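Final report, closing paragraph on structural work. Over the funding period we assembled a curated collection of sequence-structure pairs, and we close with a single example.
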Amino acid sequence: MGVIDRLTASSWQRSGVAVLTGALPVLAFPAPSLWWFAYVALVPWILLARSAPTGWRAAWDGWCGGFGYLVAVHHWLLPSLHVFIFLIAALLGALWAPWGWLVRRFLGGAPAPGRGIAALLVLPSAWLVVELVRSWQGLGGPWGMLGASQWQVGPALRLASVGGVWLLSFLVVAVNVAVAELASVPGSRRPAVAALVATATAASAAWAWAPRPRVDARVRIAVVQPGIVDGRDSGERRFELEEQLTRRLAGQGVDLVVWGESSVGFDLGDRPDLSRRIASLSRAVGADVLVNVDARRSDQPGIYKSSVLIGPNGPTGDRYDKMRLVPFGEYIPARSLLGWATSVGRAAGEDRRRGTAQVVMNVGHGLRIGPLVCFETAFPDMSRHLAQDGADVLLGQSSTSSFQNSWAPEQHASLGALRAAETGRPMVHATLTGVSAVYGPDGQRVGPWLGTSASTAHVYDVPLAHATTPYVRYGDWPVHGALLVLGVLCVAEFVRAIRRRRSGPEPLVPPSRTAHGSPVRPGH
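Its predicted structure, as stored:
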């Protein structure tokens, strides 16, 4: 505590320390991928908020830490959003203000053991509600959820099949709270140790109980990744390169070929010649080709990003229009107010149009696929609904070409492991420029990652499983539990306030005493 006290001698210094401590968890995500660091990364932030002199100051520590967290996990957006990344982080960072206040409320001073035990339930619940609110697509979506840092940990992926990424976030925060109590709250050390043991026991039990995906078939899916194609006529030249790479797949017995996001930059209704060329590829390879069209529609107004399935006779009629758009990248929220963003960054000059429903496509061979586009792979509910609707394979079509030299491609590719583990369905993450990756129904990697320097077509032997995971069956139950915990807390605080008010104020002067020592209270 002495170090924190010295570093926070002034308000501005303390705010700066809060920003830095909030940013620490980014090291647990790709590219560093120090997954183990996630279990202690929040401890400095918790200790800072705990030491706040007032509840308001603790809330401010939470706000500043949230700002640091969001800037850190989205830092690769800086070239595109410029000042907007700081504005967005400042606004959404406010979601952590109540969390900071609760840290001081339950861990400040010398808390009784009961408060320390309650903190192990309340603080992870409050964190989960923050993640729930900011997961709304209009606020930027669930990129950088703390539990997503565990994407390469086998036991964590098993737990994701039980409660999704939500359960992982809850457990990671609970461990951080327990470590903070061990470090700074002597009276709560026994409960903290007991909580760590209980968490490990419960996690182990869930890991042992959760049904393991049973592979019952395999399919061969090819990912075509052309790489960076810049300059004049890049759309035509990219299509030609994708065409060349796809032709190499002939004779390899593939069941499906997948191109990345924006792999076709022209509406196929306006360019029937492109449809015929892709249909020719389908005949040569012996499999349907899933492309992604980013263009103005010829049959209705507006620009759409659409997954389009093309067979040997042309488009099959299966089409999925992207539903959840990237703020600023694909549309500008409140464009009349924030439209000037196009002058300071690479914001969308025209808003894309949204699709209205998810689609499961039948690609032949008895194979049903559920397409997702770009950062839709970050939303657990979308892949869960596709699994419920009968998808055998989840397919993410993406492009991170604007962020090639950042941590974004690795972060995006890692999300597929969680979606696969949650649903018990394999996940194919096919990108235009890397990183492309494939995961089995248990979330484990299948075959190689295709890095950002690769221009290739690669065939993956993808295992299939069809059991229903607890997460698909029961949904976001950890979130519902967190809301229940906070609801009970609010009721308890309300009842406590009522009782305090009914008991009346304490007397302002001590009672006088008679000569015999009997107290005489005012008014008697």
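The two ends are 50 Å apart (CA to CA). Confidence is low (pLDDT under 50) at residues 520-524. We thank the funder for supporting this effort.
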